[in-house]
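User: Can you recover a sequence for this backbone? Please restate the input before giving your answer.

Assistant: Of course. Working from this structure:
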């Protein structure tokens, strides 16, 4: 199947008033599991590689090339997205490699510097046909920088989008990165206000800490792109550890890594179902 852009998948979700799943991969097992889960759900999916994942592999090209190959071979639309890139050099590398979208994270900068840097990145990416997500307002739990109670102001968010030309905006509404429990309480009134004020799709980061009902409520309130990373890592690690404990004599890592991969595929399929049906169920 031809590569699609994150913008294509997000645009389709907006038109149907549904959420779309954006899942972070760390290694090959994540990549194949995410695509397997999407194919089982018969749903489009966004595969994300973060700057931290790139750092783990030492370079973007090996894992990025694998992600693009998985996307081209998939039986459903798969977009490949660079997540939380703080380096403009990494953004350019992703564009050159063939990524259809990037998320530039200038949230550690002051507002004016964030606007300038994001505007430059957006222009470069748009000149190359690449969709751009950015972040305004702090999302809790990221590298100790962001306060858990941070919230994005709707007026400032609308101004930021107008001044940068980005295609989507990640906002702070009560979620937090790297949560191991699923009990984050989102501010649905703020999501609705942001949806009304901001002319581009909204992105929820830190979604692993949000329970299913909260994800459905976020979609109903106006959130579209839902980023999930830690939840997949939890599922993967638990399944791999269980397999190793049951068969401690095994030395072939494909056994326990395969168990982790299979568990992630099941969870991706389940979460895509929550997001695709979330608005209809929440509205009842």
């Amino acid at each position: 199947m031809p590569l699609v852009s994150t913008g294509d998948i997000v645009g389709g979700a907006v038109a149907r008033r549904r959420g779309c799943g954006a899942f972070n991969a760390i290694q090959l097992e994540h990549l194949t599991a995410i695509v397997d889960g999407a194919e089982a759900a018969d749903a489009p999916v966004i595969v994300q590689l973060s700057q931290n994942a790139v750092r783990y592999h030492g370079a973007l090209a090996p894992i990025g090339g694998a992600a693009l190959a998985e996307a081209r071979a998939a039986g459903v639309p798969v977009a490949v997205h660079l997540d939380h890139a703080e380096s403009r050099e990494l953004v350019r590398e992703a564009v050159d490699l063939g990524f259809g979208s990037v998320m530039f994270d200038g949230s550690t900068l002051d507002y004016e510097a964030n606007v300038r840097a994001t505007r430059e990145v957006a222009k470069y990416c748009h000149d190359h046909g690449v969709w751009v997500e950015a972040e305004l307002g702090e999302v809790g739990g990221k590298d100790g920088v962001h306060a858990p109670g941070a919230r994005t102001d709707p007026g400032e968010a609308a101004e930021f989008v107008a001044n940068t030309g980005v295609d989507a905006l990640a906002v702070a509404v009560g979620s937090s990165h790297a949560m191991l429990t699923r009990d984050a309480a989102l501010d649905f009134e703020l999501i609705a206000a942001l949806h009304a004020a901001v002319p581009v799709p909204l992105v929820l980061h830190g979604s692993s800490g949000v329970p299913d009902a909260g994800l459905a409520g976020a979609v109903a309130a106006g959130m579209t792109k839902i980023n999930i990373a830690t939840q997949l890592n939890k599922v993967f690690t638990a399944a791999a550890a269980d397999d190793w404990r049951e068969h401690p004599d095994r030395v072939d890592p494909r056994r326990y890594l395969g168990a982790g991969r299979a568990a992630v595929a099941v969870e991706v399929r389940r979460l895509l179902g929550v997001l695709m049906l979330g608005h209809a169920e929440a509205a009842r």
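That completes the design. Residues 109 and 236 are 34 Å apart (CA to CA).
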